[in-house]
Amino acid sequence: MATLVEQGVEPKLAAREVAALARSPAVAVAKAYAERVRRYELAVRLREEHSRLLPLVDRVDGPLTLEQLRRAVALARPFLIPGFASSWPSASWTWPELRARFGDGDVEVSAGRDGHERPDVRYQDTAVRMRFDAFLDKVVADGSSNDVYLVAHNRALAEPLLAPLLGDLRFPEVPGVERNLHLWLGPRGTVTPLHHDRVDILFVQILGRKRFHVVDGMNRRLLKDCLTYWVDHDLGNPPDDVPVTTFEVGPGDALFLPCGTWHQVTSLDPALSISTTSLGTPNEFGWYEPGGTSSGPPPKVTRPA
Ligand SMILES: O=C(O)CCC(=O)C(=O)O
Question: Which fold has domain 56-276?
Fold first, then answer.
């Protein structure tokens, strides 16, 4: 009321308006919502204060039994498993060998990405088929490029050409895992901009190194700024209220990324990674869309330098 009076509203009128507002059913509903939010925020803060006892990305020694994996998933925190896949047959893959084995077949890749503002958001716009040897020549070429990348959406492991690779992997034996493997294959310099996924992921680095920038899924700033599951921030140069954990994964290392964890990924070498969402746990979080559904315009994705 004081504010209204300060703004020149006659005191009696100001008192009447404020009293009418206080009686309004809309205010009662808003108060009930505010109370609900206050309670949820306390619960989230409690969770955050406990979780600070561990580094955001903890380390776990492999190999991982299904029971260990289930417990880790239940904690819903990212963790690194150094050397998880070092003894898999895939540890002996080399670029020349992959070229010799599969070179004369063709795969779908995302190409011409530099010509698109949001190639990761609208990956369909860049999907083309290419001979595997021509693609691998681009992958291992000198220099750095984000123009061509075979991403999970290209579904290369669902095609017969690369199916023999599956025999060299030793993912946890969960029903259906062999149909749920996703390949990421590209040159040094590929960038997957900041986003969260709507599933829990076990990500295994097979060839080359990648740099991950990771932020807790509950970060308020990113939850506020996201549109769909992308956010227009570069975690190489983050806002002050976005604490980032940065680390590298190298050949044989694995990373568990729970649904909702913010991450941005850069290849430091020609790199090949394979991930799965078959973890032997319920993994259907399609409803987790703090940034809304894709009905609005896609966000402009900032390209890290
Ligand atoms: O390796 C990459 O470039 C991106 C991986 C990723 O973001 C994911 O699996 O969700």
Answer: Jelly Rolls (2.60.120)
